[in-house]
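Researcher: Next entry in the queue.
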Amino acid sequence: MKEKEWEKLLRIKTTGRDDTRSDTFRYPYEPTSYEVLERLANTGIIGKNNTLLDYGCGKGRVSIFMAYQTKCHSIGIEYDERIYNRALANKTDAVSGNKVKFLCVDAVGFKIPDNVDRFFFFNPFSVEIFKSVLANIIDSYYENQREMLVMCYYPSDEYLMCLSQEYNVTFVEEIDCSDISDGESRREKVVVYRVGEK
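Model: Structure for this entry, 198 residues:
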């Protein structure tokens, strides 16, 4: 399905880039392509018993789509209050709005709920912030051990380096998306890592 068809089906408006509050540490809002999200949903690594946390959720596309497509629960966090309000407006009308929660919080200080076991990133912020967030995810694992998967779409070399150097994080799989968009093809993928004991 095309972007417009998904937006209509889900009853949301999430298109368009927004860089009004982006800076060196927090990157512009840009929605993940529905084709990429379909491919991720079809892997089966997110299901109805999972709770997904989308960092830098923007207008809420990932959370709402995944809740609809995989029946998971989803939490989206966003630091920009204006964009967060767009996510709230989308949740009100969305077909899966009852399975989705949006919070206007800073990612570094956010305490991860015990039931969250899936994490999604589309380069929302700098690697410095990512390292702090990853440390929070690892801490959450040790506070309440469970299967935890980190998914990064279109990962930067810095994100990949950070993940590969972390002792408590193991590469699981790579979902190839190079045929979907005309971006830098080597980055057109979703990489999946497991958090916890090796």
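Model: Helices lie at 3-10, 34-41, 61-70, 81-93, 127-143, 157-165.
Researcher: Noted, moving on.
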